[in-house]
Every structure is written in C-alpha cells, then in structure tokens.
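Report of the visiting student (M.T.), summer placement. My assignment was to run the structure pipeline on a short list of targets and document each run. The first record concerns Helix-turn-helix transcriptional regulator.
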Amino acid sequence: MQISPIVARGRVIAAGRMLAGLDQEQLATEAGLSPSTVSKVEQGRKNVRETTWRAVKQALERLGVDLIQNNKTGHHAVGTSYA
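After the run finished, the structure tokens were exported:
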C-alpha cells in the first residue's frame, strides 16, 4: 500500500518527535507552532509549508534527531545524531 507524500512526511515528523521524547505540545513549543498544527501535520491532514518543515526540523535537530527529505524522490527519513 502506497501512502501520499503528505501522510509520509507527517509520519516521519511523528517518528522524529517520539525519538526526541516529546509530545505534540512540546514539539509545537520547540518549533514555535501551535499544537493543532503539529497534530494536523502528523496526521497528514495539512500540507506542510517549507517554513513549518524547517521549524520542526530545526527543533528536532537541536535535540539530536535528524529529519531528511530526498528532493529528487520525495522520500523522507528520520534518524538520530550523536555529534
């Protein structure tokens, strides 16, 4: 079963949040977003603006979690860094 890119990105964000040990409200605070926005993004109900993606990505990177997007294929991945 193939999922839409919006849903895939939301799942990667949710996985990154969980790797960081945050709930949606904490991620929203870290990223300067509303908890409602984080919830909708994770559920794939809201297309993610580039500025929102960047804010979430930077918030998680500060906590050692990397969100990666392949601009050619549109695939997303999440991992941890220990640098």
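The two ends are 36 Å apart (CA to CA). Strands lie at 65-69, 76-80. I thank the supervising group for their guidance throughout the placement.
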